[in-house]
């Protein structure tokens, strides 16, 4: 609860941290958990609900939640097009679960009319683990993030059914189904590192944000 209150108070320009300025899309879902993690890692965090708030950040996290609702709200608030433009412009974006669905070029089992922002050359299937087994935990090997396996929590998560030529799989379940992908400055996981205390994905994402900020200054 304390964590939630703390991150909620992080309005635009509210944090004194010297780290990169990272936004968390706060239309719906577990944005507070991401804001808390990023703040702990030294980022200057603000919640993004409007296009002008998006303009101010050097990277963006799209949280877990419900992708169909996030999609609808992003269009209602006039954020979908600015988000797509920012992605095309190379803004580092990390999507977890519903956030990964938002970043996928193709979404299977979407609700009628549901759109994604796109950017990641992947096909994802929503709710891929079915109603009997909507949540589970497992340890994943993620060679790009070190030797130590990562404990991963899946909550009605999507699976990456196919990875196009432009994207790279970073992690798969024991049966081979891909659950983490990367493409340039875009990163997506089917699971939720923001709730497990395992911050290697957030660190990896912040590395992309710092690299982009540094190259913009040169
Ligand atoms: N934990 C989550 O983000 C679940 C994702 C949700 N099932 C969706 O389709 O958006």
TrEMBL record:
One record GO biological process: pyridoxine metabolic process
Keywords tagged on the record: Glutamine amidotransferase, Hydrolase, Lyase, Pyridoxal phosphate
Binding site for L-glutamine: 65-67, 126, 155-156
Pfam families found in the cross-reference section: SNO
Metabolic or biological pathway: Cofactor biosynthesis; pyridoxal 5'-phosphate biosynthesis
EC assignment: 4.3.3.6, 3.5.1.2
Active site: 97 (nucleophile), 192 (charge relay system), 194 (charge relay system)
SUPFAM superfamilies linked: Class I glutamine amidotransferase-like
Cellular component terms (Gene Ontology): cytosol; glutaminase complex
Catalytic activity: L-glutamine + H2O = L-glutamate + NH4(+); aldehydo-D-ribose 5-phosphate + D-glyceraldehyde 3-phosphate + L-glutamine = pyridoxal 5'-phosphate + L-glutamate + phosphate + 3 H2O + H(+)
Protein's UniProt keywords contain Hydrolase: yes
Gene Ontology MF terms: glutaminase activity; pyridoxal 5'-phosphate synthase (glutamine hydrolysing) activity
Description of how the protein assembles with itself and partners: In the presence of PdxS, forms a dodecamer of heterodimers. Only shows activity in the heterodimer.
Family named by the database record: Belongs to the glutaminase PdxT/SNO family.
Name recorded for this polypeptide: Pyridoxal 5'-phosphate synthase subunit PdxT
Gene of this entry: pdxT
């Amino acid at each position: 609860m304390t964590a939630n209150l703390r991150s909620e108070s992080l309005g635009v320009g509210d944090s004194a941290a010297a780290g990169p300025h990272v936004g968390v899309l706060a239309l719906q879902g577990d944005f507070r958990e991401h804001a808390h993690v990023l703040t702990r890692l030294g980022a200057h965090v603000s919640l993004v609900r409007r296009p002008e708030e998006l303009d101010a950040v050097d990277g963006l996290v799209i949280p877990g939640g419900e992708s169909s609702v996030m999609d609808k709200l992003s269009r209602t608030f006039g954020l979908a097009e600015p988000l797509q433009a920012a992605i095309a412009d190379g803004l580092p974006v990390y999507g977890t679960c519903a956030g990964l669905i938002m970043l996928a070029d193709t979404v299977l089992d979407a609700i009628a009319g549901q759109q994604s922002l796109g950017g990641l050359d992947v096909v994802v299937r929503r709710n891929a683990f079915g109603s009997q087994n909507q949540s589970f935990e497992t340890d994943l090997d993620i060679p790009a993030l070190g030797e130590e396996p990562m404990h991963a929590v899946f909550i009605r998560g999507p699976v990456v059914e196919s990875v196009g030529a432009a994207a790279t799989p970073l992690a798969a379940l024991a049966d081979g189904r891909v659950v983490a992908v990367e493409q340039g400055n875009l990163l997506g996981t089917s699971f939720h590192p923001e709730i497990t205390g395992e911050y290697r994905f957030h660190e990896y994402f912040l590395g992309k944000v710092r690299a982009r900020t540094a190259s913009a200054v040169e």
